[in-house]
């Protein structure tokens, strides 16, 4: 029986991965604030990793919050410290995992409306979210685990049932507030959670793939197109547009950041495409049916 260790399995993606790996016959172990091993007990984490085929790290505080000094410090700490501890745990294994896939984000790239950003010539952006992503990947790179393949997963917005980024957007549409956000021209790259799982297992089985991997569905749409599709799903004949200034005010009230909806994310999964990966949910129409 193959073993996968999931760090940060309590969130939307982690829960989905747990169910899918278990259904596929894998032995699933977890690392977190609770679980089979807990943060701070590096020896116990190492014991769970011993002989495992795959380590997936999804740990980190949600970025859907105000970027106060305290929240920024915790967002950074919760990613870098856990990644560094996993590196120490893997390094102490006699039989370390074959693969270590560490969460990262497509937000590492610049605000792009002119062309997609792929793994080969994509341009990094600036700002706090980019600093987090770069620090996350640098911490993974510093882990001295020569027997384990390390891949940062540059994930885009993850959609799916029972959670994901679509829940607040669906609610806005139901209330008649599902119009474009800002000027509506910002690009929206995304992936369905099931395709994210399938991409992870595909990467595990294709050992020639190395380095950072973008995970984004082939169809990229604008924010205006996204909101129109969501309106159609809920049979809403209208959606009130939300200008950028009002979004900034609303973000303060609901304690989040406008970057989550106003930054143009145009990410291309070139490595997966070149390796022949196929998508179960290649377009927003199919994804919305199951989100």
Question: Could you name the key traits of this structure?
Answer:
291 residues, alpha/beta, seven-stranded parallel β-sheet, 11 strands
Give a short account of the largest sheet: 7 strands, parallel
The residue-averaged pLDDT reads: 92
Order of helices and strands: EHEEHEHEHEEHEEHEEHHHHH
Stretches with pLDDT under 50, minimum 5 residues: none
Q: Percent of residues in helical segments?
A: 40-55%
> How much strand content do the residues show?
15-25%
Radius of gyration: 19 Å
Shape: globular
In spatial order, strands of the major sheet run: 3-2-1-4-5-6-10
Q: Number of helix segments?
A: 11
What does this molecule look like?
The protein has 291 residues and is α/β, with parallel strands linked by helices. Helix content is 40%, strand content 15%. It is built from eleven helices and eleven strands. The strands form three sheets. The chain has a seven-stranded parallel sheet, with helices on both faces. It is globular.
Give the topology.
Layout (H helix, E strand, L loop, with lengths): L2 E5 L4 H12 L3 E6 L4 E2 L3 H8 L4 E4 L11 H23 L7 E7 L22 H15 L6 E7 L1 E3 L6 H9 L12 E2 L1 E3 H13 L7 E3 L5 E2 H11 L10 H11 L4 H4 L7 H5 L9 H6 L2
Parallel strand pairs: 1-2, 1-4, 2-3, 4-5, 5-6, 6-10, 7-9
Antiparallel strand pairs: 8-11
